[in-house]
Structures are given as C-alpha cells and as structure tokens.
Amino acid sequence: MVHFVDYAALSKVQENIKPVMDIFNNEMTKVYYLPAGLLLISTISLYWLSPKNFPRWAIFASIILTIISVGTTLFVIAPIHSNLPVTGLIETVKQHLLPISLYFQIVPATLQVILVLFLLNIYLKDTKIFSRLIFILFFVLLFYSLGPGLVEGANYAFWGAVGEKDWLSFRNSGNPEDFWGLFLIPSVLPMFLSILLFWWRPNGFPKFFIVIFLLTQIEITIATATYFVPKIQSPLFKAFSASLIEDLNKYNFIGRGIMFDIGLIIIALSFIKIGQSIGHQQTR
C-alpha cells in the first residue's frame, strides 16, 4: 500500500506539504516502523521457539530476509520519510524511494511469504491436502490484508490536512487496479474461504470459531457496502469534504476495525487449538 498507493498519492500534495507529511510520519511509526521492529524480534525468536520439524535453513533464511527488509525500513526508508515535511514527495525523492522499496522491502517480504507457505505446509502435514491448502490460503490472505488495512486506516488521519486545492488529484492518483488487487480483493476472499473451512479445515479448528469469524466479516461487508462506500468514499472521489473525512476517522474503527480485530483474535486462537491437536496426536 505504501509503495503502490501512498507514494503516488502523496506526490500530488503541493499546498499543505508539512502538515500532511508530519501526520503521515506519525502514523507510519505506529503501523510501519514499530511492527517492523516487532517482526524482527519475532523472526529471530523462531530460532529457539520454532517446532523441531521446521528446517534450520528456512529459519535462517527467514531471519536474513527480515533483517534486510526491516533494516531497509528503519535505517533507509524512515530517514527519507522524515525529510518529506520539508521537501515533499517530489519526483526525484519518489524515484529514489521506489526502487529501494521494491527491491529491499517488497521482494524480501514476498520471499518471506513463500517461506511461510512452506513452513505452514510442514506444520499441517497431518492435515489432508485440500483442507491444508484451503486453510493456508485463508491464513495468508487474512494476515496479508491486515497490513494494507492498517495503512489505509492510517492514511485517513492525514486526508483532512490535504486541503481542497490538491484533493482531487490526490484522491484520484495512481492506478485503481492496484488498490483493488492489493487491498479490496484480498480482504474479501477470506470471508468466502471461511465457508469452505466448515468442511475442510485442520483438526482442532473449532467450527464455532468459523461462525464467529464469518459473522465479523459479514458485518464489515455490510457496513462497507451500506455506509462507508456510498456515504463517504464515493462522494470523496468527487469533492473534498472535511466533515466526511472526520466521520470516516470517527467511525472506521467502530464500524469495521473492532470486527476485524475480533476475527484476527479468533484465527490466532485457532492456531493454539490446532497446535494442541497436533501435540495430542504426536503423544499417542
């Protein structure tokens, strides 16, 4: 989201550069830099805490890829972002940022996802292949959508500072297909995949967890389709409105964020249940 959506949009801000970029940096600290640091800590901890059947080479590869991406985020990207309130995201800065972000953040992160798929497949080796594939795809899409969702929510914080002059070029910047492909479609697919989990899922994954998760996704979908898109998002494609942006910031977490968090907690608890089931099978 930051690479494909934010950089394209922020490069259109001319009038209120400093307040927009100040808020952008504050929000990135919460959803970008701190999670990157936690990712590094958790990945390194895999060396001691990972299951014994996880290959050591995969753990080492994951640690190296994380060091590359997190190091780039904290020691290269963050300093460039810190100068944006002064310079703005001018074309020379943007062209400097894009290849660094692509090759040293996105590429290592993509390789990390491939490793996650590989390790999840090992972790769930006693699960039937179709059930395993459905759950892995569901898990990856759900936790992938968390990142773009956090960034999109953080973006709402500085929308009001953009101002009317730059709003339309800011709001309509970039490629709409990027937003659909990076955020909307991956965010909706877990709801449909969760239906398949009623029949095909790992042992130990309680069916009522799926019911709770599905209900959270239905609530998010209804809130988005009946309120956020027609009442706020669509009008903001046509004109700047400080009151609509204020409502978006006020109601986004209440209307969608709480349900999304509940869904994530349910899936995290499902891993505990699945792990307990695997442990029971191994001790028989």
Rg of Cα set? 20 Å
Strand content: under 5%
Distance separating the two termini: 46 Å
**N-to-C SSE series?**
HHHHHHHHHH
| Backbone shape | globular
Q: In percent, how helical is the residue content?
A: over 70%
Number of helices: 10
Outline the low-pLDDT stretches. Answer: none
Number of domains: 1
Average predicted confidence as pLDDT: 88
Beta-strand segment tally: 0
**Major β-sheet annotation:** none
- SS content category: mainly alpha
Defining traits:
single chain; 284 residues; mainly alpha; 10 helices; globular
Describe this structure in words.
The chain has 284 residues and is an all-alpha fold. It has one domain (2-283). It is built from ten helices and no strands. Helix 2 packs antiparallel against helix 6 (129-162), helix 3 runs antiparallel to helix 5 and helix 6 runs antiparallel to helix 10.
Secondary structure layout:
Blueprint: H1 2-10, H2 17-49, H3 56-82, H4 84-87, H5 91-123, H6 129-162, H7 164-171, H8 176-196, H9 207-236, H10 242-283
Helix pairs in contact: 2-3, 2-6, 3-5, 5-6, 6-8, 6-10, 8-9, 9-10
What is shown here, in short?
This protein is mainly α and 284 residues long.
